[in-house]
Specification:
Blueprint lengths: L6 E8 L1 E5 L4 E3 L4 E2 L3 E5 L6 E8 L8 E4 L2 E3 L5 H20 L11 E7 L9 H16 L8 H8 L14 E5 L10 E6 L7 E7 L9 H11 L1 H24 L2 H20 L10 H21 L4 E5 L5 E6 L3 H11 L4 E3 L45 E6 L5 E7 L2 E4 L22
Parallel strand pairs: 7-9, 15-16
Antiparallel strand pairs: 1-6, 1-17, 2-5, 3-4, 5-10, 6-9, 7-8, 10-11, 12-14, 12-16, 13-14, 17-18
Helix pairs in contact: 1-2, 2-3, 5-6
The protein binds adenosine-5'-triphosphate (ATP) and ligand DP6.
Family: Belongs to the diphosphomevalonate decarboxylase family.
Pathway: Isoprenoid biosynthesis; isopentenyl diphosphate biosynthesis via mevalonate pathway; isopentenyl diphosphate from (R)-mevalonate: step 3/3
Protein name: Diphosphomevalonate decarboxylase
Length: 435
C-alpha cells in the first residue's frame, strides 16, 4: 500500500555572480563547461528563489511544477527532469539499502518555486532557481550527509551550469573537471562568507527585459565560431583562477578588482568575436565601465589601489563589487551620472532618508565629496533619467537554507514558508517583499 503521509520541504537559495565567467560547454547534455569559473554568492535575504516540494500518493496527476504561480510542463524540460530524476534515484537506493526509511521516492511530487526578482532577465534566476530545486529535493529526501554539498552541486549543474555554484555561500569555484561522465565537474567552496563579509555588491539594473541571446545558445555559438574563446579557455582562464584564488584568500580587493574586470572584458570580447557577433553590453553599460575605470585610475594615482570592480553577465546590467566602506561613494557616483534610479537601501547603508525612491526627482544627485583629486568629472555625461532603472545593494551571502520540513503533523521550521497548500496546489505568491 502506498504511504498515506504527505512529505514537504521548503528551501531558499541565493544568486551568484561570477568574477571568472563560465562561457562554453564541452558537453551540452550533461552541462560540462570548457573552463573553470569562480563566483561570489549574494545575500539571499535580498535576492532569492524559494522552492517547496511536496510528495504524496494523493497527487494523482503525477509530478507537477509551478514557477511564479504558473504551471510549467516538467516533461518538456530535460533540465528539470535530470535534477528530479537524480535526486529520486539517490533516495531510492537509500530506501533499498535501509528498510526503516519511508518509501517516498516513488510518490508523485508537486513543486512550487518563486523568485523575488525578475526571472530570465540576466539576474541569474536559473542559478538560484535550480539550486533551490536541488536543495529542496535533497532536504525532502534527506540526501545529506550521504551526499555532500559538492555532490548536490553536480546535480544542480544539470539544471543550469551556474546553478552549481549557488549550492555554497561565500566564494565558490566550479571545477570544470575532465571526466566525460561529469563526475568531477562540481562546485567547491573557496572561502565562506565569514572570510570576507565586508565585500558588497551594487547591481545596476539597466534593463530587466528578457534578453536577446540567452546564455545557453550564445555560449555554444561562441564555442563553434570564436577563436578568441579557444584562447581564453587555454591561455587566459587557468592563470586567472589562480590569481583570483589568491585575491580572495588575501582579501586583496585591488587584485580582485583587476582580475574581475579583465575577465568580464575578455568574456564580452569573446561574445563580440562570435559569428554573428553577440552584443550583451549597451551604451549605458559601457558608460558605467568608463566611469569606474576613471574612478579607479584616479584612485590608483592617489593610493595605488582600485576601489570598485565591474562585471557583466549575458546582458547590459552591471554588478559593481566594492568594500563596504567604499559603497556610499560608489553609489553617489552612479546616482550622479545615472539619475532617477529606484534604490532601496536594504542594509541601511546610508542612514535615514536613503530609502526614498528617486523616481520623479529628475535632478542628478550631487557628486560625492572625497573623490580622488585627479578624478575627471567630465569623463562621461550625466545620462537620461532612468538609464539605470534600479539599484540593488547587497553583499556576500550564505548557501541554501532549509526553511521548513514536515511529514504530516511533524513540523520543523516555519510552516508559513511553504508554497504548497494542504491540497498540494500553489498557496500564493511569496509574501516576502519582492525586489
Ligand atoms: N525558481 C526557479 N525554479 C526552477 N527553474 C527556474 C527558476 N527560476 C528560473 N528558472 C529557470 O531558469 C530560466 C531562466 O534562465 P535564463 O538563463 O534565461 O535567465 P537568467 O538566469 O535570469 O539569466 P542569466 O543566466 O543570463 O543570468 C527560466 O525560464 C526557468 O526555466
Ligand atoms: C554569463 C554567465 O552568467 C553564463 C551563465 O550561463 P548559464 O548557467 O545560465 O548557462 P546554462 O548552463 O546553459 O544554463 C557566466 C557565469 O555565470 O559564469
Amino acid at each position: 500500500m502506498a504511504d498515506p503521509k504527505t512529505y514537504t520541504a521548503t528551501c531558499s537559495a541565493p544568486v551568484n555572480i561570477a568574477v571568472i565567467k563560465y562561457w562554453g560547454k564541452r558537453d551540452t547534455s550533461l552541462i560540462l563547461p570548457t573552463n573553470d569559473s569562480l563566483s561570489v554568492t549574494l545575500d539571499q535575504d535580498h535576492l532569492r528563489s524559494v522552492t517547496t516540494a511536496s510528495a504524496s500518493a494523493a497527487f494523482e496527476a503525477g509530478d507537477r511544477l509551478w514557477l511564479n504561480g504558473i504551471e510549467e510542463q516538467i516533461k518538456d524540460s530535460k533540465r528539470l527532469l535530470a535534477c528530479i530524476q537524480e535526486c529520486r534515484k539517490v533516495r531510492k537506493s537509500r530506501e533499498e539499502a535501509d528498510a526503516s526509511l519511508a518509501k517516498m521516492s516513488d510518490l508523485p511530487l508537486h513543486i512550487c518555486s518563486e523568485n523575488n526578482f525578475p526571472t530570465a532577465a540576466g539576474l541569474a534566476s536559473s542559478a538560484s532557481g535550480f539550486a533551490a530545486l536541488v536543495a529542496t529535493l535533497a532536504s525532502l529526501y534527506s540526501l545529506q550527509p550521504t551526499l555532500s554539498t559538492s555532490d548536490l552541486s553536480r546535480i544542480a549543474r544539470q539544471g543550469s551550469g551556474s546553478a552549481c555554484r549557488s549550492l555554497f555561500g561565500g566564494f565558490v569555484a566550479w571545477q570544470s573537471g575532465t571526466s566525460p561522465d561529469g563526475s568531477d565537474s562540481l562546485a567547491v567552496e573557496v572561502a565562506p562568507k565569514s572570510h570576507w563579509p565586508s565585500l558588497q555588491a551594487l547591481i545596476c539594473v539597466v534593463s530587466d527585459a528578457k534578453k536577446g541571446t540567452p546564455s545557453t545558445a550564445g555560449m555554444q555559438q561562441s564555442v563553434a565560431t570564436s577563436p578568441l574563446l579557444q584562447h581564453r579557455i587555454k591561455n587566459v582562464v587557468p592563470g586567472r583562477m589562480v590569481e583570483m584564488g589568491k585575491a580572495v584568500q588575501a582579501k586583496d580587493f585591488d587584485l580582485f578588482a583587476e582580475v574581475t574586470m579583465n575577465d568580464s572584458n575578455n568574456f564580452h570580447a569573446c561574445a563580440l568575436d562570435t559569428s554573428p557577433p553577440i552584443f550583451y553590453m549597451n551604451d549605458t553599460s559601457r558608460a558605467i565601465v568608463q566611469l569606474i575605470e576613471e574612478y579607479n585610475r584616479s584612485s590608483i594615482e592617489e593610493t595605488g589601489k582600485r576601489r570598485v570592480a565591474y562585471t557583466y553577465d549575458a546582458g547590459p546590467n552591471a554588478v559593481l563589487y566594492a568594500e563596504e566602506k567604499e559603497v556610499p561613494t560608489v553609489l553617489a557616483l552612479v546616482r550622479h551620472y545615472f539619475p532617477n534610479a529606484d534604490f532601496d537601501d536594504t542594509f541601511n547603508l546610508l542612514g535615514a532618508g536613503a530609502n526614498a525612491s528617486h523616481r520623479g526627482a529628475q535632478a542628478p544627485a550631487e557628486l560625492p565629496s572625497g573623490l580622488p583629486k585627479t578624478f575627471n568629472k567630465d569623463i562621461i555625461q550625466v545620462h537620461q533619467p532612468g538609464s539605470v532603472r534600479r539599484l540593488i545593494h547587497t553583499r556576500v551571502g550564505d548557501g541554501p537554507r532549509t526553511l521548513h520540513k514536515a511529514a504530516d503533523a511533524d513540523n520543523v521550521g516555519d510552516e508559513k514558508e511553504s508554497l504548497v497548500g494542504p491540497d498540494g496546489l500553489p498557496l500564493r505568491l511569496q509574501r516576502a517583499k519582492r525586489v
